[in-house]
Input
Amino acid sequence: MNKQLNSYKTRLHTYRIKRAILILLVASAAILALCIGNTNYSPLYVIKVLLKIESKGSFTINTLRLPRMLAGLAAGFALGMAGYIFQTLLRNPLASPDVIGVSAGTSTAAVFSILVLGFQGPFVSVIAIAIGLAIAFTIYFLSKVHGHFSHIKMILIGIGFQAMLTAMTNYLLTRSAEFDVASTLQWLSGSLNGIMMDNIPWYLFSILTLFLILLMLNPNLELIILGDELSKSLGMQLNKVFNLFIIIGVLLVALTTAITGPIASVAFLSGPIAVRIFHNNRSNLVTAGLIGSFIVLSADLLANNVFSVHYPVGVITGILGAPYLILLLITISKGRK
Amino acid sequence: MNLETKNLTTGYDKKVIINDLDISIQQGKINIIIGSNGCGKSTLLKNIARLQRPMSGSIMLDSRDIHSYESKEFARKLGLLPQSPVVPEGISVFDLVTRGRFPYRKFMSNLKDEDYTAVNSALSLVGITELADRHIDELSGGQRQRVWIALALAQETDILLLDEPTTYLDIQYQIEILDLLFELNRTKGTTVVMVLHDINLSSRYGDYIFALKEGKLVDHGDPKKIITKDLMKEVYELNCLIIPDPLTQDPMVIPIGKHSSTKQIKR
Output
């Protein structure tokens, strides 16, 4: 009888070790992001600059690299969690916010308010988030059939919205010749270029708050994978929890997209990678978030240091996402046979 | 645990499926709901499990409307095995069965010793202790069904609802699952309420039968008393012979089809 309990505890132990390794990887990527670039500094020197003991390189580290690293860390974490939430709730690996129009809505709104309305600064983020939310909830309410929510309808309507919104963003960008290419790319594929420290505190605070709420709701995610009927009969308030998760997931994506643009594929990839590594024995909310952070930080390191051109991070993550999408479609159609 | 429906009217959207139904579940017994497709058997079970709200009337558990219970409190009293639960990938049997402890978990707390005890005894009751470390998606249909039952047992409820627990199983597994439910009922006194398709198995394993037709109760009681030619005709529009089961003496239904006798003549 204790044999089963022991192997349960072994599984828990293995899970914790793997998670610790992942945290170390994320931390190393974050430290590297501060050290490496046009000028390289040692980690020790970086700490001295951060603590204002040394002043040489302060502009590079404090003004350029620190906000970039923090934004990448939080954006990856937020997108990873949001992707896992959507995929788990809708029980479909395609149901990621970057596939079903949530991030596209926010970036179209941002481009519209910059180019057409001529707004600038934090006001753009506020409008982008508001419109992003409005579009996400439009998709959500259109997915109700006779008052019942339909998973597959939400995915299909979302993919339709995604195509339409991306087309609108493209149209707006081609119409504005004076708009510089770098900022343009941010709203097409997401980028950490030119992120200001001014935006970081409120962004980190919002993501952290949402994360704490999610931690409280986390045990529910372990039930949702068993289906609606079992979740309810095990005493979960499914409708309430479902709506709360959707609202938080959409907020995570809209807030992040307003800061970094729609960083491609992170939300889509993180959950499945986390499930592959950590299995489904417990909720992968946190591990999917960590995978997201790792993807964004390491892709940004690659984008900045390996190629002669500084690509936006979204270009690299987008390249990662495409083969997975193809693989997924192949395995889904094989499963049908 | 007294469970009964009072003037229960329910259905989907605006379509009424069950109309003004009064039934009283027999405590500590194996209750089986029978009836042809679309008669409202599953709908009735879903309403009792709070998956659906009645249009009018009510369902009372210990003289309280079931919807007046807090959701975890209700889940500690009544468990459900749905007809086709979603089979998650990459999850081991032990970890899956621990989810049955959800209604006992306090806010933000981890599993306690009593939770592990409940999981272990659920696994051994259904005889799948040796499968504890296997992933559920690798198991056969009969083994999976045992896992779902273990999950519901870890919930430690006095009432267990099952929606066609034998439907997709080969005959030997059907008997295994019904034997298992019988043992649970007799040893732990769990009230079992299930929907079954097979009349002969219902008659053999059921202590009490509810026969539904078009959302109305046609008859109810001990299978020995109520499974008759007339009932089969009324509920299923089936002509049949009733003979005593050679093993148990319970009524056994021998259907009479249009060609039953012709085939005999040919031989």
Notes: The interface with chain A takes residues 13, 46, 49-51, 71-76, 78-80, 82, 85-86, 88-92, 94-96, 98-100, 102-103, 105, 107-108, 116, 120, 123-124, 129, 132-133, 151, 155 of chain B (CB under 8 Å). Chain B has a mean pLDDT of 92.
